[in-house]
């Protein structure tokens, strides 16, 4: 099964994001916009994981979560991967986590690796919420869109748990939360 670990922003924070996105999906029909019901912050991509690895994976992820403290985050700014000029992914940024959010992500990825989940090696962690993806593989010029979204700043919200998510790929990708662990460390 295809798995990743994510933060789930609270509904109020996601409502602000929806407000910021507004009617832009209609103006940018060449992008595949993510549905608000799928919005999350990916902390660690685990890739294909055999079902038999799940118990150990869950133990390790729970242990990692238990070593980190809750964080106060807010949505801020926007950008695109790999660049706004040839965007493949358009995103909103996340602020307030300092180094704690990267340390949590590294801990979760390490827990995944120890349980045999190969994940994504080498990519620097850049917390974001994916708003849209380009259809063509060579990307799309999203500079005006990123420019419009980049001044967005949301209210602070508390990230106090991580969730193990399963991707059900298809014409409309669906995510299923398999397990959650509170962030109970002292920071
Ligand atoms: O939450 P976002 O959209 O940023 O892009 C995929 C998505 O991230 C990412 O994992 C999340 C859940 O699917 N993802 C998919 N394949 C990936 C890969 N090979 C990947 N991240 C890194 N390497």
Automatic annotation (TrEMBL):
GO terms for molecular function: 2',3'-cyclic-nucleotide 3'-phosphodiesterase activity; ligase activity; RNA 2',3'-cyclic 3'-phosphodiesterase activity. A motif (HXTX 2) lies at residues 128-131. The active site is at residues 40, 128. Hydrolyzes RNA 2',3'-cyclic phosphodiester to an RNA 2'-phosphomonoester. This is RNA 2',3'-cyclic phosphodiesterase. A motif (HXTX 1) lies at residues 40-43. Its EC number is 3.1.4.58. It comes from Sphaerisporangium krabiense. Belongs to the 2H phosphoesterase superfamily. ThpR family. It comes from the Bacteria. Keywords: Hydrolase, Ligase. Coiled coil: none annotated. The keyword Ligase applies. PANTHER family: RNA 2',3'-CYCLIC PHOSPHODIESTERASE. It catalyses: a 3'-end 2',3'-cyclophospho-ribonucleotide-RNA + H2O = a 3'-end 2'-phospho-ribonucleotide-RNA + H(+). The keyword Ligase applies.
